[in-house]
Amino acid sequence: MTRTPLSLTEVEELARAAHATQTDKAGRPYAEHLAAVAEGVRTRGGDVEQIAAAWLHDAVEDHVLTPEGLAATPLTARTRAIVLAVTKRPGEPPEAYARRILGTPGALLVKQADLAHNADPGRLAVLDGATRERLTEKYARMRALLGLPS
Fold it and tell me: Is this structure's pTM higher than 0.90?
């Protein structure tokens, strides 16, 4: 029996509940980042499946949803594939991570929106200098590997 995929509202509710106790590096509710990435995907012309993936883009990586839990969630196969593509794996070289993103239809736009929000000067400004510098270099390297503008 095929289940109807979750609506965007239901995906948002799932993501907010899954990340409810998390905060970002600046101490802000993590759901703010998820909302910003989803909005970034939308404003860049992303479709419903990409926006859904944006809401869930860190769920597996942050261990709030297991790969099995993701597989059991009523999402389209493409949405699940995008989430798994943008999920960093322990010890994975950045080059392999970038290849997986580039090889998964729809994933690059989600990662682009994620990087844009992560590298937002306002978000980075509240971090200590060493962390800000490390993350700025990390995000610039990933943008280069993905062929995205600086």
Answer: yes
